[in-house]
Write the structure tokens for this entry.
Amino acid sequence: MMDKVFSAVGLDLGSSRTRCVVCLIEDERLRFLGHGECESHGWVKSRIADQNAVTNCVVEVLRQAESEAQLSIDATVVGFGGTTVRGANSRSRIELGRPREIEQRDINRALDRTWKVQLREDRMVLQLFAQDFVVEDQHGHRDPRSILAQRLEANAHLITGSIQEHNHLTGALHQAHIAVEETVYEPLAAHFASILPEDRREGTALVDIGSQSTDLVVYYDESLQLASSLPICGDHFTRDVALAFRISYEEALRAKEEYGSATAEYTAQNSVVDVGLPGERASRELPRHLLNEIIEARARELFDFVRRELARVGMDKSLLGVVLAGGGARLPGMCDMAETVLKCQARNGLAVGIRDWPAELDHPGWTTAAGLAMYSAKLKVQKELERQSVGLLARILT
């Protein structure tokens, strides 16, 4: 039992919006306390181009979150994603010597070797996820402890990222005088927040659709099978509209967000939309059906990429469902298009398990920030339980 109350903070540094969620761990539950949000600056193609601008965004959202939560924030779990992140399988093998029962220290040693692979320059291991173990050439062991063996192999999935980009990210937070508890791959945080553990066993994918990057994670039998970055993001949808109608990016973004849909089937042929920006005298009317046909074509291409990635790990025909997160998931018709292309159920990923979660944040744009706060809570609970167990051992030995 935990006898202390802790705060848990998650910070989602998106290239379009910067979001922060503050929660409180009490009575072994997570309760919402406050949040902050502002428009992001300093990003180009999902990479930090102006670290000072990113720092200013961090300071702004933390100020908002601290004011609402009525507490001071000095540390956070922060999301890391974008086109520099890669996922890859890794395997290691250790010899135990004489036949004996496998112990936890053997598992730790085998997993430790999986990430000691030869990485290219400017690459670092962000996270490691065990998949299964091979004991004496017998595959598929989830927990090999207590099995009599001479050798043990570990299969794991490694998520790697750019050292330079990671330094830019953590540097932006340090400039804001905020400590980084952990950096977590963003779609993993969204998956953690929106998909229950029992659903991971049957095969689930989460697609995090951001304005400058789209990331994918796939789980089966509670283990991570794939982490991947896709070449289609929200900006592609907007620029397609701007190019087709020869309008500005801002006008195209407004048309997409207010009138767009990823399925054109139910849009009337004679329907038109006004793409003039607020405050401007001149405005233009555009055919809404054509607008949605343009968006639909790009959405189909996005989920075709998802399908190909699923096929790489043999999950293209055995997926229980796909969950959509990120601001791009809010576009009407995205779930319908996902179901059409992937031949499985699709839904928006919404945060679950946080008490007093506000209704206005109940959309997929906030799922990653919620998952990062939940991850922070997990780290705090584990650390406190370890501290208590050590304290108990010390009392026993005195």
Remarks:
- The longest helix spans residues 367-397.
- The longest strand covers residues 86-101.
- Residues 39 and 382 are 34 Å apart (CA to CA).
- The radius of gyration is 23 Å.
